[in-house]
Amino acid sequence: MNAKTGRQTGSVGMIDRRGLIKGVGASGLALAAGSLSWSSRASAAPVKGGSLKMGCSHGQTTDSLEPGTYSHGFMILLSYNCHAKLTVVGADNKLHGDIAESWEGSDQARKWVFKLRQAEFHDGTRVTAKDVIASLNHHRGENSKSNAKPVVANIKNITAEGDSTVIFDLTSGDADFPYILTDYQLAICKAKEDGTINWQDDGSRAGPYKLVGFEPGVRAQLEKAENYWNPDVGHLASAEVLVILDSTARQNALIAGEVDVIDRPDIRTLSMLQNTPGLKVEEETGFRFFGYTMFTDTPPFDNNDVRLALKYSIDREAALSAALDGHGMIGNDHPITPAYRFYDPAIEQHKYDIDRAKFHLKKAGLSSLDVDLSASETVFSAAVDCALLFASNAKPAGININVIREPADSYWSNVWLKKPFIATDWGGRPTEDLMFSVMFAAGAPWNDTRFNNPRFQELLIAARAELDEAKRREMYGEMQRIVHSDGGLIAPVLPNNIWAFRSRVKHADSISKSWELDGWMFISRWWVEG
């Protein structure tokens, strides 16, 4: 992608599902795992050893190591580097086995059989089917408090055949089921005798790195797990992650050599980093979006004409310039970006149109509107500036937006999911179904617009079970249109993922686009020289 124009100049980083589908016959859908190595061709062989320090834009003192609570970059990177999953999106943007050595779907993707490889927890004990079942059941059932509950809601039953085979029976077919198991909350932990998981014990994780130090919202220290099953993953001997919420402080730490890598540098001073000797800035298109969410069950946002009036009251071109200086593209008020497989480019683009905003406000029975909008730089560096720009844009329509600057260190715990109109930043998910299930399924813990549309719910269930590509594309297109026209999301801009690092830090030519920083697995996949 050309960062300044937003025009596509190459691959958009779509997850490659070819090779996942093996065939469809009378007996159902058969699928097989991809290659078992995550490594990709690099210009030079990785160097083993050394240490890396990262300055991270997320982190809260309320962070917990309980997998069902993971919700932002600091905890996501700990999950992907310290925990194993059944499957993982590799640096080549294809699905690979982690704890799972192979898998096969049948009965129209309602039954899935996973074969486990010989893998160990950090304490040296073997990972078995019992551990996998306990880890997935942690997020299931009436008593589960996990935020991943909607992700696994389609699982009807999980059983084992011996120590190395796990069988999933689903309520309805799901052609993307192996992708769901890459979710950062679905960490494999050691099972207790009562069927629960031991997430507190340091030895009960099975990822490439051991977590040897953890201060919530402050720092984390990692050391290489020598018994991790894949020798091609985990080049660094150790790593440290420091929570540095302020973007200026993060950049200064990088320039001063206090850290080696930072995520989300301030766009407004990006050129300073680009022109600093010994530093490198990279960016990739992906699944993220910046925007604003409204509670669709709370006045005045429970009136869709009010929501539409607000959608037509923001100058997206100006927001793109203010928030990203062109390092991204215009969004269209639904979460499916061009990086997704079933993105629908034919949906009418919402544009800045004061007359249409006034029309919908009048249709809602209002001559003016006064609302509070909460924002903080912790959402994205220009979040408050963009909120003020939104307020200025909306004034000619009779919409008065009072921007409330919220504290950065408590935004995600005290504002998100609690206040009715806020600035937000979503990282996306590797499939449309997973994104819609987490953010828009009725009753989902992270449904931050409180969206509840019966037709959307019907399509959500039907689309995941549909094996016909054309029909599936049509269903996901309709879901995008429903959220676009009826939802409580305003997504004016789609940012590129941007990070910066010291020149001694190296990585393979191919990196994952599923999340930032190589799918947040930079600690496991990158290395240092010198």
Written overview of the protein:
This protein is of the alpha+beta class. The chain is 24% helix and 24% strand. The protein has 15 helices and 25 strands. The protein has helices spanning 73-82, 129-137, 177-180, 247-255, 270-274, 304-311, 316-324, 354-363, 383-394, 411-414, 432-439, 454-465, 469-486, 516-519, 522-525; strands spanning 21-25, 28-31, 51-56, 87-89, 95-97, 100-106, 111-116, 155-161, 165-170, 190-191, 197-198, 209-215, 219-224, 238-243, 261-263, 279-284, 289-294, 328-330, 369-375, 399-405, 421-426, 489-495, 497-502, 505-506, 527-528. The protein has a 7-stranded mixed beta sheet with strand order 12-13-14-3-15-23-16, with helices on both faces. Helix 9 links the parallel strand 19 (369-375) and strand 20. Helix 7 runs antiparallel to helix 9. It is globular and about 70 Å long.
Helical element count?
15
Cα-to-Cα separation, first versus last residue: 32 Å
Quaternary arrangement of the chains shown? Answer: single chain
Could you estimate the helical fraction of the residues in percent?
10-25%
Major β-sheet, in short?
7 strands, mixed
Assign an overall shape: globular
Radius of gyration equals: 23 Å
Task: List the uncertain runs.
Answer: 1-42
Summing up helix and strand content along with how strands pair, one would put the structural category as alpha+beta
Number of strands: 25
Strand content: 15-25%
Taking all residues together, what is the mean pLDDT? 90
- The strands making up the biggest β-sheet line up spatially as 12-13-14-3-15-23-16
